[in-house]
Design goal:
389 residues; mainly alpha; Growth Hormone, Chain: A
Length: 389
């Protein structure tokens, strides 16, 4: 594989683990709710099951990354995620759907964490390329799925999962091939200590990011469906929204390049979270088509920049042997927030009878995350660390 293609091929792992496995669910969710008669809490639980799998995968990565290496965990994760997506389309049983969503999240953790570490070996540009790969999945699902459901109806949701799984097969193969060409950053049996307490603002902000953003990505399509006056325009509105989201994630690395380059503090993450919070709140204050599409523009242009910022912070502040462990710890905190987010937003919406209130709470959490991230300093500027050195 040509060196210039490696970051793009590796980004297929982000497309599978996030663009399809996590965000594709938001487009399929309304059809599953209708066909399976799910309430918001049950719909949120399926995404929470995915997040629980992601959390377990992240916790196990902390332990196994120094033993098995990033390349092995990345490849195994992307294969498991692809198989789980195919399995989602082969059952209508709620318990089996919960299991397959869990397994998809479990595999996605290793893919996302270790893919971020491997991209860090290639450089800052490769980091943002890898994470923006999630936009590939969003772009493709947004261009196709709303129209498919418009013509075939809610019972077509199993076909949607099978189609997504089929697309993920070549993406997984390309990502696994790319991973093999990258030098393994971890040394088997060796880990490096790192000052996690001094990374607290960045890490806690990442937890709140997981808590807040996932509610928007899970329920926004359902919100759009309920707030579109003309039923015949639901497919076009949701399709354009998701295509904008996906396209903006691919453009985002260029837009954020100047802010991200050379910065070792929390400003890149804080700035991305501020834009994300604004985008998440916008439809609630502008409940029309313009507000929806502008929201997609802001969210798509910032959502994958948050994990890119965390990875860049770790890469620029910590020794190479600590990257895998630090990324796994950060992602575990993110996964805890992501696990709570969907079911909490669903519960709030069920209790208040308004999905808008649940989404407003998630936007407020994202704003809090932004303020926390802005407090993060480069590690060499922290007095206790400087004295220790």
């Amino acid at each position: 594989m040509r060196p210039g293609l490696v970051p793009w091929a590796l980004s297929g792992g982000a497309a599978v683990s996030v663009g399809f496995a996590r965000f594709g669910y938001a487009l399929i969710l309304p059809a599953m709710q209708t066909d399976l008669h799910l309430n918001y809490a049950e719909a949120g639980w399926l995404n929470t099951a995915n997040s629980l799998g992601y959390l377990l995968g992240a916790l196990l990565t902390i332990y196994f990354v120094s033993k098995l290496g990033n390349r092995t965990l990345f490849t195994g994760g992307v294969i498991l995620t692809t198989l789980s997506l195919l399995a989602n389309g082969m059952t209508h049983d709620f318990q089996f759907l919960t299991l397959f969503r869990f397994l998809a999240g479990f595999g996605a953790a290793g893919t996302f964490i270790c893919g971020g570490v491997l991209s860090g070996v290639l450089g800052t540009r490769a980091i943002v390329i890898f994470f923006s790969g999630g936009g590939i999945g969003m772009l493709l699902t947004g261009a196709v799925l709303p129209w498919m459901f418009s013509h075939a109806g809610a019972p077509a949701w199993p076909l949607a999962w099978l189609a997504i799984g089929a697309i993920c097969i070549p993406l997984s193969m390309a990502a696994a091939m790319a991973a093999r060409t990258i030098t393994e950053p971890s040394t088997p049996g060796r880990t490096a200590s790192w000052p996690w307490r001094h990374c607290a603002p960045e890490l806690i902000a990442y937890f709140f990011f997981g808590l807040g953003y996932i509610a928007y990505m899970t329920f926004m399509i359902a919100w759009v469906k309920h707030h579109t006056v003309d039923p015949t325009r639901v497919a076009s509105t949701t399709s354009v929204m998701w295509v904008i989201l996906g396209a903006m994630t691919l453009v985002a690395p260029v837009l954020w390049q100047r802010l991200f380059n050379g910065r070792r503090n929390g400003k890149p993450m804080g700035a991305a979270l501020l834009v994300l919070a604004l985008g998440a709140a916008l439809p609630l204050t502008m409940p029309n088509q313009g507000g929806i599409w502008l929201s997609a523009l802001l969210v798509g242009g910032s959502v994958f920049m948050v994990p890119s910022a965390v990875t860049g912070f770790i890469k620029s502040n910590l020794p190479v042997p600590a990257w895998g462990n630090a990324m796994a710890v950060a992602t575990s905190l993110f996964a805890i927030g992501q696990t709570i987010g969907p079911v909490a937003c669903g519960w709030i919406s069920d209790q208040t009878g308004s999905l808008s209130i649940g989404l407003a709470a998630s936007a407020a959490v994202l704003l809090l995350a932004a303020l926390l991230a802005l407090y993060q300093k480069p590690l060499e500027l922290i007095p206790t660390l400087a004295k220790a050195e």
